């Protein structure tokens, strides 16, 4: 069993992220990443990590609960997984406080090599918001940028659908659940289409259903993967604001669609403007500003 298979096997044992991180650090720090983790070495690594965690509140995997009968399952999942440190792993995620150690994928990994822009927003998107999204997506597809969102209702769905309509290899969906489930259920066909023609990413095992805290974890990945995040309409306490705040914390550029002060779905965007986000004053100027920012980033 190799390093990646070991991490996936531990995921199958429902080990927490923090426990996996301790395993990862131990293996890397002791220069064991190229070793074969069968039998004695596997138990030695887990034993040593468990000893180091005796006084910490991280749930451990007891040695007598290691189930090697699931190794074939882990090996099969390896072919659909990226491990942190691999060349195709999104480099921007390395800057996150809690980067995914394993990310599962369906579709074309070549999309990860292209310039990406994240677009997020309300589940109750207006006709105006949809119109803006379609125009933005059209211009960004002309630039050959990959558009990233979270496959939620509203803004996310509009971004993915429009990108899929315009071209292949144009959009990435980051899920808050495993690939064997769809959330929302109404996006099942869109998710299947993107798994064939575009790219889906998830840090969750295929049979993991969506749970509330996983949406926040998904949001950090949407915000962290791109140098720019665009917010199209967001209410006062929306998940989109959480994502935008992640983007600001990660020192990403944030662009927002301003709205009327009487519109509940404009509150979030207007609040982001107050703390320094960039206003979208026109579709063309927004794309031009982003091109200029990307040029500066590439030259720095």
TrEMBL record:
InterPro entries: DprA (IPR003488), DrpA_SLOG (IPR057666)
All residue ranges annotated as the Smf/DprA SLOG domain in the record: 81-290
One Pfam family cited in the UniProt record for this chain: DNA_processg_A
GO terms, biological process: DNA-mediated transformation
Top-rank lineage group of the source organism: Bacteria
UniProt family annotation: Belongs to the DprA/Smf family.
Protein name stated in the entry: DNA-protecting protein DprA
Source organism of the structure: Fundicoccus ignavus
Name of the gene this protein is made from: dprA
């Amino acid at each position: 069993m190799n390093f990646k298979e070991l991490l996936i096997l531990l995921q199958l044992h429902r080990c927490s992220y923090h426990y996996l991180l301790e395993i990862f650090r131990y293996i890397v720090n002791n220069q064991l990443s190229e070793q074969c983790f069968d039998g004695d070495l596997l138990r030695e690594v887990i034993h040593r990590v468990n000893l180091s965690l005796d006084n910490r509140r991280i749930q451990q995997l007891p040695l007598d609960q290691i189930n090697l009968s699931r190794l074939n399952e882990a090996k099969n999942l390896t072919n659909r997984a990226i491990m942190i440190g691999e060349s195709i792993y999104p480099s921007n995620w390395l800057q996150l406080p809690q980067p995914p150690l394993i990310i599962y994928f369906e579709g074309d990994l070549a999309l990860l090599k292209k310039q990406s822009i994240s677009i997020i927003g309300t589940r109750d998107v207006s006709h105006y918001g949809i119109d803006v999204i379609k125009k933005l997506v059209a211009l960004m597809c002309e630039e050959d940028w990959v558009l990233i969102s979270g496959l939620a209702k509203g803004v996310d769905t509009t971004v993915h659908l429009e990108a899929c309509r315009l071209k292949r290899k144009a959009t990435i969906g980051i899920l808050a659940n495993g690939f064997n489930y769809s959330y929302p259920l109404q996006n099942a066909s869109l998710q299947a289409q993107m798994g064939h023609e575009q790219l889906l990413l998830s840090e969750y095992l295929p049979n993991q259903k969506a749970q509330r805290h996983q949406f926040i974890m998904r949001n950090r990945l949407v915000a962290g993967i791109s140098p720019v995040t665009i917010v199209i309409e967001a209410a006062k306490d929306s998940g989109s604001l959480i994502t935008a705040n992640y983007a600001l914390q990660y020192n990403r550029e944030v662009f927002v669609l301003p709205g009327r002060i009487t519109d509940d779905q404009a509150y979030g965007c207007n609040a982001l403007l107050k703390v320094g986000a960039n206003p979208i004053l026109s579709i063309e100027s927004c794309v031009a500003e982003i091109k200029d920012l990307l040029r500066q980033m590439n030259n720095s």
